[in-house]
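mind reviewing these tokens:
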Amino acid sequence: MPHRGPENTGEERRKGPGPTGGRGGFRKRRDRLRICRPRPQYRVDRHGKEGTPHKEVPIVENNLSDQLKETFSEEEMHQNWIRVYRNPLSAAFYERAFDRICSLLNPPREAGILDVGCGTCAQSMRLARRGFQVLAVDFSETALKKAETEIRSAGLQDRITLRREDILSLTLGDGSFEYLLCWGVLMHIADLERAISELIRVCKPGGRIIISEGNMSSLQSRILRGLKKAFRLGKSRVVRGKEGYEFWESTSSGVLLTRQADIRWLVRRFKEGGCSLEHRFAGQFTELYSVFHSTPAAWSIHKLNDLYFRHLMWPLPAFGNICIFRKE
């Protein structure tokens, strides 16, 4: 699923053990928490839509995972993403991106694909229209209910099956799917290594895993981090780890993690799991249109993204990066 990069007030390096958690789980785990790496403990101030301070939201070791899950269960979170990313200008990019993905995969007709973290199924429907049989999974009941309505409206209920699943503990067997899509999802998962392991596990040998993530080395990311650090702008807490820059913020829906990934680390991690990088190319050059919404500035940014995707697609300076891995 797409994302909107939060703002930050400064950078903090990890100093010791702390909480983890993430999108992709639906069962309550109050008694334990998966910890994949050290993380500092800190607190996030929560603010409402009008900037009115709310009760401080504690980030503590035994409830972080549940807080993140609850955030993605809120209808408002999905409505915001629909408003920002599901519009005609954004849709034009996604259609071109999925045309390119399918041309690179060259799948047989009726090939099965697993869409992990499907959200409201915008990408699942694009895959279905291109001939795939899609199993779309997400932990959020709110997202799945919206997805069911949209799938029926599009007449694609025979091509898309919905299931509630946890990306950190998929119930699917080893090597279940030849194709997997995980679009804008890993950036919201704190236990990133486990999520990647699950994607690799359920992929067949010789199969492909397609991911789309924000790139911490992009021109947009570098400039904004520098400006925010220099002028102490924003509200979020940023943590620099081996996986990239993690932005923790408190939204009106709850605590939110968004990561700008170190793509080189992602490639190494997939390689350790037995996957080679077949293709890496630019997604959207910048997502600053999410700040301007339906304005002439947003239209200009979409046009820039369109030109970059059509004629360059060099991934390093682009914020959006699309990677296709092949499992050996």
Notes: The chain has one domain: 60-327.
